[in-house]
Amino acid sequence: MAALSSVYNFNSSKPVWRENSYPIFKRFNNSFRFMKFKLSCRNKGERFATNVLVLPRYIAQIIIIASQVFGRALSRALREELSATKYASKPGSSSAKATNEAISNLRHGMTLEEARQILNVSEKLDQAEIEKRYNHLFSMNDKAKGGSFYLQSKVVRAKERLEAEIKNRGLKNARKQANSDGSEIN
C-alpha cells in the first residue's frame, strides 16, 4: 500500500491524492522492506506547491514529537531525583554515610585512610598509639633538625583527622547505648 499525500492542483480547488516521494518502510511477511515512492506531477509548479504545503506539517510533527520526548525524559529524571533524595535522606542509607564521610574529608583535608597511612596506625585507632607516632614524626620533621614544615603539617592534619574519627565513633557508641537505655544524647 502506497503512502498518499495531498497535492494541491492549481486547476481545481480539490486536492489530488498521489504517491509521495518520501521513503517509508512497508511491512511484508513479518519483515520491513524499504520502499520509495515517486511523486507524479503534471508540472514543476505543482511539485513546488506540494513541497511547500507538506513542509510545515512535518515541521509541526517534528516539534511535537521532540517536545514529547523531552517531556518524558524530564519527568523521568525528576522522578529518579526525587527517589534518590528520599533514599539519601534515610539515616541508615549508604548514600548518607558517604556524604558524611565526604564532609569530614573536606573539613580535615584528608581521608581517614590517608591519615592512618601517614601515622602508620591500625584500624582500631588507639589514642595512645596515635599520640606516640605523632610525637615521633613531629620531632623527626622539626625544622631545627633539618626536617620539613610541609611534612610536619601533614602529620598534624593526620592526627586531627584520626582524633575527629575517634570522637565521632565515641558519639555513635554513646548514642547506641542511649537508645538501648531509652535516654537521648545530642
TrEMBL record:
One of its GO terms (cellular component) is TIM23 mitochondrial import inner membrane translocase complex. Gene3D superfamilies: DnaJ domain. Its main location: mitochondrion. GO terms for biological process: protein import into mitochondrial matrix. Keywords: Membrane, Mitochondrion, Mitochondrion inner membrane, Protein transport, Translocation, Transport. It is a peripheral membrane protein. It is found in: Mitochondrion inner membrane. InterPro entries: J_dom_sf (IPR036869), Tim16 (IPR005341). The keyword Transferase does not apply. Belongs to the TIM16/PAM16 family. Regulates ATP-dependent protein translocation into the mitochondrial matrix. This is Mitochondrial import inner membrane translocase subunit tim-16. It comes from Trichinella britovi. The lineage of its organism: Eukaryota, Metazoa, Ecdysozoa, Nematoda, Enoplea. The gene is blp.
